[in-house]
Every structure is written in structure tokens, then in C-alpha cells.
Amino acid sequence: MTQPVTTPSTMRAVSQDRAGAPDVLKVVATERPEPGRGEILVRVHAAGVNPADWKIRERGVFADGATPPFTLGFDVAGVVEAVGAGVTLFRPGDEVFGMPRFPHPAGAYAQYVTAPARHFAPRPRGLDHIQAGALPLASLTAWQALVDTAAVQAGQRVLIHAAAGGVGHLAVQIAKARGAYVIATARAAKHDLLRALGADELIDYRTQDIADTVRDVDVVLDSIGGPTWARSLRTLRRGGILVSILPFDDTFPARQAEEAGVRAVFMLVEPDQQGLREISALVESGRLRVIVDAVLPLEDADRAHALGETGRTTGKIVLTVTPDPGRP
Fold first, then answer.
1. Which pLDDT score, from 0 to 100, does residue 322 have?
2. Architecture label for domain 138-266
């Protein structure tokens, strides 16, 4: 007779007890969380790695002030293990993906995660856990920047910086799905890929200055900051918008933006079930695909961070989580 599978009371997770380089990340045994009211417990199969992760690791503090010891990670793909009181959207066994709790600690580099049910959506049909684990934060950032914030319309000219990166390669496709003309910046070696994803015009940022070559842009999506802000403002037509996913600091040319008659905003991505469902629809219709550059086991989180910090990856890095013996 087959014995029922029980959820263990402990789990493996990647933890850090101090700020520092990637080698501060260690796998530890810790107590498995329990879902509260309105929450689900997800058995993690894959966890995406994002620049936010290694920046938090290096600083040793989350935006809300949380300090070590803590577990990093916001991107989750997995299977619902249990549901808390009041949850009606999901049942145990459902396959889900999401970006729970951002920007507060979510603890995705672990075997189990709990979070509000509405921070998740059904996993897109046709994607495996690894692909789904690569999507949430990067795709929601691109969607909320281009659709919710900039309201990109058909025929508009959209400039996307770092277009071969995690956010950028998805932003190119989302802008094209909205009917935009897409101008993408990236190293020349990445241009063929970006053309295949739908970019209409390619700029090699190492040899071309966008401020001299690009004009009459309606929307700029910037993930670089610094001097790029001023150069990007010069590409915008009056009434255009620069959306930065990096917070503005005292280097941002606010007076120049005002004089040019353009808007400039900082956007912080938020958990968004409806956005995830819109992204799923694009995936299932064949208009959005996620590129996974590297897949590493949870135990190699330090290697994943070191790889990400080179700035040379295309698309996303994903950690896979091995189930406990005897579990499917």
C-alpha cells in the first residue's frame, strides 16, 4: 500500500548571516513555514535570481530594514502544498508562479515559501518550472513600467536599455505586443537575438551614443541610471516619459527634464496577480518567451550571484530546488 506523503517540518534554505560577497550564502536547515490566513504554502521547484538579490546580499539589508540572518529570493515557481484559512483561488497540487511579498523578504531560495494567495497565478501552459521561475519579477517590472505606467500604444517609439538583460528582453517583447516600434540598446553580440525577439532598431552602446542617434522617442525604459538618464532625456519628444526602475538620486537631471517638457518617474514593481495573468496570456499566445541563461542547483546560489554580477548574462539565471527523498 502506498503511504501518504507528509510535509516535513524542516526544510533546506539558502541563508546569509552577514553582508558580503557571494560566499556569505550558505545552505542551512530551518523550520518550514506555515500558511496563515489568506496564504498558501508553495513547494518551490525553481527560484529566479535577480539583481535585487545580489544588491541586498552585498548591503546586508532589505528595503524594509530587515537584516541578517535572512533568505533571499523573490521569484517562485512550484506546487501548492497547503492553503490557509479563507483561500479559495488555489488547492493543494496546483502549479503556480509569482513574486511574493516584494520588496519585503520572501525567502524564495528555499524548499518552501508562504505568501498571500493573490501574489501568485497559475503557471503558464507550456512552461516548465524553470522557465516559470525566471519570469515573475522581470516580466512584472517590464509590464508595470510599459503598460501600467507609460501606457504604451501602437505606433509609439520605445527605447529599452540593457535590452538583452532579464527585464530588457521581456520588455522588448511586451512593447512589440503592444504594437510599438522598439529601439534596443545592447552589445553588438546580442543584436541578432534581440532582432529575433522583435526589436526594430539596435544600438551598440559601446560605439554609439543614443543622445546623438535616437530622436522622437515616446517612452524610455531605463535600468542603468547615472549618465544614461541625461542621454535618454535627449531622445524623448515633448510629452514623452522616462521610466526608471532605479531610484533617482542627486545625479538625475530633474531641471533638464522639466525644460524638455518630459516626464521622468521611478517605478517600483509590486506583486500583481492580474499582471501575472496578462503575462501568462502573452506566453500562451506565443508572443512572449523567457530566455534562461543558466540553471544551477540551490546549493550553488553563490555561483549564481557571481555569474549575475558579471553583467554578461543574457536573460535570467534560475536556481532549482531538489525535493526531499520520497517526494515527487
1. 81
2. 3-Layer(aba) Sandwich (3.40)
